[in-house]
Amino acid sequence: MSTIDAKALSQKITPTVNKIQKSKVVNGISNGLMGAMPVTLLGAFSALLLNLPIAPYKEFITNVGIANALQVIIQFSTNFLAVIFAVAIAGGYAKQHKEDGVFAGLLTLVCFFIVTPMNVTEEGVKLIPFQWLGGTGIFTAIIVSLVATRIYIYLKQKGVTIKMPESVPPVVASSFSSLIPGFAAVIFFTIVSSVFAATSFGTIHQFVYTFLQIPLQGVGGNIVSIVILWTFAQLLWFFGIHGTLVIYSVVLPIFTAMDAAQMAAYAAGEALPNITGRAFVSTYTMSGSAIGFALLMLFVAKSKQYKTLGKLSAVPALFGISEPLVFGTPLVFNFKFFVPFVFMNGVNLIIAYTLTAIGIIPRVAGFTPVSGTPIILSGLMEGSWKIAALQVVLVALSTIVWYPFFKKADNEAYQIEQSAENNQE
Predict the structure, then answer these.
(1) Which UniProt keywords apply (predicted)?
(2) Which of 218, 255, 349, 365 is buried deepest, with most CB atoms within 10 A?
């Protein structure tokens, strides 16, 4: 395929990709999930501190009460993610329509608890169990947040509101204008809750978990589908499109639910339920699995071109920042590096999955690292030095795979530079 053909294909792909990336629903979900990341990280670090495998340390935090404090934080962060995500997504989605994100979040909170089952003790005390407030309730939280917010936005923008005189302060007028849309959403989910209570499922939570969340997590847990998705992501990168964002705009809710279940199990000291998830992909595909290429340019290159690129891209690559590498080399539309650039992610994921599945490497704990967390540290954060060691092994492997492609390009660049110097003489 020629470069012209590649650009033509890129022009055909780009409009579809742009529609996905500009979707208000997609951006509302993505922005909400990302906006809730500080709370997610709070729970993740609490779980790490609670489960450090150092006997004297664990005895100390138990004796002084730190362990109990950490468990409380985990209970209302990691085990409360469905509630947190519901509020955050509603706010993010409302802002996409330039409406009040705070009210949308509060409205969603009310609607979410309306459809959440409540237990009553023998003494008549009403309790809401945590069963659906964490990872198992995330998909219901997404649905409730989008539907409740959409009802609110639709009625508000259609003018189905209580209109106050102009003399009324804007804050008061805004509150009254949200009453009818808010009542409509609450009534809708009250009806939904009553309908599902009359079925064998009992709640919408159980229905969504059975028919939506479990099947989708099955897809997210399938290494074949993950390899295909991340190979496609790299193909989009090759055409100059941010493939990672495109893929995550579709699979982020699935991976988020899987990682939430992973973190909850890790915090409780239980067997981890998933091999894959966002944390798994992030841990084993840092910088598009091209760190080895950056190191080759830094330490092995003969040409000034690639030596300079190595100095610019190696350190960012080690911290998971691939843009200097992708656009500086460039790897975009560069068929010299097409094979390792597009397919190395898939190779790393297959190796990591296989070693994890047979028990040589432990499962990642589900703590998606903050952007910029360096390799090795991001592996240690997943709960084991073996994960960090595998990261190093995969970098070494990528160095070997990238080497022949790099060597050929470097020699060509070096010869061009030498010819230019000779001509100047």
Answers:
(1) Cell membrane, Membrane, Phosphotransferase system, Sugar transport, Transmembrane, Transmembrane helix, Transport
(2) 255
Domain boundaries, the chain: 24-211, 232-424
Residue 120 has pLDDT above 50, yes or no: yes
Kindly report, residue by residue over 268-311, the tens digit of the pLDDT.
889 999 999 999 999 999 888 899 999 999 999 999 999 999 99
Q: What is d(CA 361, CA 371) in angstroms, rounded to the nearest whole number?
A: 24
Query: What average pLDDT is seen over the chain?
Result: 89
Which two tokens mark 305? Answer: 């071109």
Name 126's bridge partners. Answer: 120
- The pairing of beta strand 119-120 with beta strand 126-127: antiparallel
Cα separation, 323 vs 368, whole angstroms = 20
Tokens of 299: 């330490």
